Amino acid sequence: MKFSPGEANPRHEDDRLLTGCGQYSDDVRLPNMAYAAIVRSPYAHAGITGIDAEAALEMEGVLAVLTGADWDADGLGEVVNPGIVMKPPLPRPDGTPFVNPGRKPLPTDRVRYVGEPVAVVVAETPAQAALAAEVVELDLDPLPAAIATAHARDEDAAQVWEAFPRNEVFVHRIGDAEAAEAALSTAPHVLRERLVVNRIHANPMEPRSVTGDYDAERDHYTIYGGVQRSFSFRDMLAEKVFRVTPDQVDVVPGDVGGSFGLKGSMNMEMPLVGWASKRLGRPVKWTATRTEVLTGDEHARDVIVDAALAVDDEGRFLGFQAETVSNLGAFAGFFGLAPAVLNLGSMAGPYTIPAMSVEAVGVWTHTGPVAPYRGAGRPEAAFVIERMVDLAARELGMDPVEIRRRNLIPVDALPYKTALTFTYDCGEFEAVLDKALAAADYAGFPARKAESAARGKLRGIGVAMCIETAGSAGYETTELKFAEDGSVTVLAGTTNHGQGHSTLFAQYVSDRLGYDGAEISVVESDTREIKDGVGTGGSRSAAFASAAVEDAIAKAVAKGKRIAAHLLQVGEADLSFDSGEYTVASSGQHISFQEVARAAFSPDMLPSGMEPGFHEYGRSELGGPSFPNGCHVCEVEVSPDLGTVDVLSHVLVDDVGFEINPMIVKGQLHGGVLQAAGQILMEDLVYDEDGQIITGSFMDYAMPRISDYCSIEAGSHPVPTATNPTGVKGAGESGTVGAMPALANAIENAIAERGAKLPDMPVTPFKLWTALQEALPAKAG
């Protein structure tokens, strides 16, 4: 099948994955492999006074029980996650730069959250390892713990790290605080609200699994396991942990069974299995149970925002101010600080707000670390500004659409520098709004609301504009490696975990070089074959990978032209190239690119001085982000008797620039909407006051099913960006960014007529029913 950029082609990789030919992390099987189980802390905070492994070591099949003392004895280093990369570094409250505390995979002094690894049991089978882990005795001295985000900075709160008074990690300020304060102090209307974005979990399809294989002869570690950034992890493992050179470590992601940001983090099991393999002289595998996923993985979100929006009597925005407190957990995960600070600029929305300021504070707590998760700060930011806009509309008695329309950035004002860090290069925000309203039949809502009221139901409609930053300055690599039969392997620095990267590459190679999909294979982020790259995260791959593969294709076409000219006995200037064929204009002679690629392996068919073989390297270097944007319109019906929410309609129109594959774009948007709905309606990772997770299984942690939501209508309004050669804007997170505030606004719109206030997320039936019941006396009075 031929593929072309811009067409809604079926996914190139699906036949392989859907017929059971995928190679996921737990599919790795190596000769003589042993299995690991992790002994985890049952306390949120405790001193380690002893570990007794004697009974475990006597059990059948047990090969070793390893502790932090063994790690230290072997002279290994710490996992030094960057936390975040910023210039200048994030400041601490006293003005000194934040330095991330290093972390040993197994602690020796104290544990700092429930689920933290304390020891590793290795046995002949997974069952033997799991049983032995149960009998390892931990002698722990419980200590007070700081759990709640809102109280982490209290004077009497337990300290997570002694070097961080009041558990304050950093204080980051953007915008103009004086201008924002002046706007709020003189405005006729100021809306103030505390908004809580709860802690949740990514819950990928495949739990994390990792296999370590140490080759003593080469003094070389190979780590198999689904990760988003294999090159960064390779370098960190080599230089900081195993203390070897990067060429002594390989990371092999294989097929990644879902991630959403979670597997962009360096978890402790990765260095542990490599170390255990070296100790035992055989491969060692570890695979998480679902409970380990919920307790031991890095979590997401968990931020409290106190926001204020100033408006005039006509509904024009005058100023905005916010203070955020982000719970980072007990350690800063890989880019774990990023959601708290990097996307605060999204609070500006697509609006002309003249004065804005945000103060962001990070806090340690005795809870699991957090990591970027679909949106990584963007959904939180959009939720804040769009909830505040709806509150302003209600205060002024205005239609929520009209107040947004009055404040949208006009096309002729672009590029537009907001009062919060970002400069939007392009967009047609009002056109996107109008398309979404038309598709949702916004004008017909009053009639539908009346029909619901006749049945005793409360109907609401919610609108949310959204804009986000996708990608950033950086680079990516792609190589085209041709075989003697003319087929081609794309070697890419990106990492696919559900986005359809293989299809992206197939579309470009097929269209430009004349290949069928079956003749194209793709390998991503395998450091055994690819020596340089960045990986996937922040909706960067489409922009970077498309530019990199175009660069490699252009070089391949140029090399092929030399060979084609030699074969056809003409000058290179006499040849044109289009859709996989070189053609001589004067005679009509032609030769396909694949014929040329095959000829490249025969020395007697090459121009003088050209070496046999065909392998071209492409690289993209982009100077800044793109800004996907859109509008979501959601319609719900609430049962006042039960507190249940029935989502009736969800329409969105997104501008993600040039759509390489519109079918995949829609799939990404649909998935993002459902993840947003999960957070608004049901998902909640709950700690009790002692730091115990009480939502540690799917019996307690709810996630949306297809029956929980309506069919999603995804429209598009592409405005290509000039920030990258192909004009694409990231699409992976946009659905989540806009859907969270749209759904929340719809629910509050439904219950507002009863005088009820939207509860904090998740808006469960009990919370919603309670809010409606509490509003009844106030309305009656």
TrEMBL record:
<dbReference type="Pfam" id="PF02738">
    <property type="entry name" value="MoCoBD_1"/>
</dbReference>
<dbReference type="InterPro" id="IPR008274">
    <property type="entry name" value="AldOxase/xan_DH_MoCoBD1"/>
</dbReference>
<dbReference type="InterPro" id="IPR046867">
    <property type="entry name" value="AldOxase/xan_DH_MoCoBD2"/>
</dbReference>
<protein>
    <submittedName>
        <fullName>Carbon-monoxide dehydrogenase large subunit</fullName>
        <ecNumber>1.2.7.4</ecNumber>
    </submittedName>
</protein>
<dbReference type="InterPro" id="IPR037165">
    <property type="entry name" value="AldOxase/xan_DH_Mopterin-bd_sf"/>
</dbReference>
<dbReference type="InterPro" id="IPR000674">
    <property type="entry name" value="Ald_Oxase/Xan_DH_a/b"/>
</dbReference>
<dbReference type="InterPro" id="IPR036856">
    <property type="entry name" value="Ald_Oxase/Xan_DH_a/b_sf"/>
</dbReference>
<dbReference type="GO" id="GO:0005506">
    <property type="term" value="F:iron ion binding"/>
</dbReference>
<keyword id="KW-0560">Oxidoreductase</keyword>
<keyword id="KW-0500">Molybdenum</keyword>
<dbReference type="InterPro" id="IPR016208">
    <property type="entry name" value="Ald_Oxase/xanthine_DH-like"/>
</dbReference>
<dbReference type="GO" id="GO:0043885">
    <property type="term" value="F:anaerobic carbon-monoxide dehydrogenase activity"/>
</dbReference>
<keyword id="KW-0614">Plasmid</keyword>
<dbReference type="Pfam" id="PF01315">
    <property type="entry name" value="Ald_Xan_dh_C"/>
</dbReference>
<feature type="domain" description="Aldehyde oxidase/xanthine dehydrogenase a/b hammerhead">
    <location>
        <begin position="19"/>
        <end position="144"/>
    </location>
</feature>
<dbReference type="Pfam" id="PF20256">
    <property type="entry name" value="MoCoBD_2"/>
</dbReference>
